[in-house]
Amino acid sequence: MQPFSYERAEDEQQAVAMASSHPEARFISGGTNLLDLMKLGVERPTHLIDISRLPLARIESTEDNGLRIGAQVRNSDLAADPQVRSRYPLLAQALLAGASGQIRNKASTAGNLLQRTRCYYFYDRNMPCNKREPGSGCAALEGFNRMHAVLGGSAACIAVHPSDMAVAMAALDASVETLSADGNERRIPLAELHQLPGEDPHVETSLAHGEMITAVTLPPPPAGRQVYRKVRDRASYAFALVSVAIIASASGGRIEHARIAMGGVAAKPWRTLDIEQALSAAPASARTCSETAEAALEGAQGYGGNDFKIPLAKRTLRHTLATAIEPV
């Protein structure tokens, strides 16, 4: 592991000021991803800023009856929160489907959103990886790519984002609150936080250097049933091959509204807003579910080892949507 300096921030303003004065600084909270990457030499920060004791661990209602989740709220606490369980069960389901109990007890809300891909070639410094070392190539394109993206990839990278929580938050139309060293506060829709790889897969988010996530805000949940379904290689701790988050309601044989987000298929939680809009007033039928699944995966591309993900994603979406709209 490369030597690094360390300091602990006492408040948010101090944390972002520390980050702005160190070009190679990283924030650390739970450290469940960053420390592994540092041990492997994939992440090589020269300075760590400990933000784990900042007063950002509250879950509170907002004036519009939504929910504000502090960046330091632990995944286990968020999954167990009564408001989350009763009003945002989709989020609780996704959190409990991700990681082990021990990791959920350490992992923070902001850290979960910013965790890096689990691509084998990203972790292996002996292999080319444009995300780890820009311009070196992508070994996954013709390598072992069973876990990799079928949507939104590029000739430079086909890695996926590993978070279950982010997929649920995408379906819930979450926003991320941030703070920069100049005092600027931003609210970034979650759909705009993570970036598709394009020609610059090392640029993974829309955050500037030193910009820190302080909270995630959820609007009031829409009416309807919330369902999160994750398909993985084993029932215990494993990342998603495909996951689907759906919020939908139906009445009188018609779908009233639906939101759909998919995980395990792209470098970010995958939303298809045009397909969601087309579902409004559509028949609540098996045929609609099948047509929606086909449309959502239109243009998907496999790379050999992950070809199976395309029919798997269609089946998972079709079944999850059917569950969400079935009569109570």
Helix fraction bin = 25-40%
Sheet-strand content, in percent, reads 15-25%
Oligomer: single chain
State the fourth-level CATH superfamily of the domain at 225-325.
CO dehydrogenase flavoprotein, C-terminal domain
- SSE class: alpha+beta
**CATH first level of the domain at 225-325: which class?**
Alpha Beta
Task: Tell me about the largest β-sheet.
Answer: 5 strands, antiparallel
Question: Can you walk through the features of this model?
Answer:
The protein has helices spanning 12-20, 34-39, 75-80, 82-87, 89-97, 101-106, 109-114, 120-123, 164-171, 190-193, 273-279, 286-296, 309-325; strands at 5-8, 25-28, 47-50, 59-61, 67-70, 175-179, 185-189, 212-218, 225-231, 242-251, 254-263, 270-271. The chain is an alpha+beta fold and 328 residues long. A hairpin with a 2-residue loop joins strand 10 (242-251) and strand 11. The protein has a domain at 225-325: CO dehydrogenase flavoprotein, C-terminal domain (Enolase-like, domain 1, 2-Layer Sandwich). The mean pLDDT is 96. The chain is 30% helix and 20% strand. It has a five-stranded antiparallel β-sheet. The protein has a four-stranded antiparallel β-sheet with strand order 9-10-11-12. The protein has a three-stranded parallel β-sheet with strand order 1-3-2, covered by helices on one side. It comes from Halomonas binhaiensis. Residues 1-223 form the FAD-binding PCMH-type domain. InterPro entries: CO_DH_flav_C (IPR005107), CO_DH_flav_C_dom_sf (IPR036683), Diverse_Substr_Oxidored (IPR051312), FAD-bd_PCMH (IPR016166), FAD-bd_PCMH-like_sf (IPR036318), FAD-bd_PCMH_sub1 (IPR016167), FAD-bd_PCMH_sub2 (IPR016169), Mopterin_DH_FAD-bd (IPR002346).
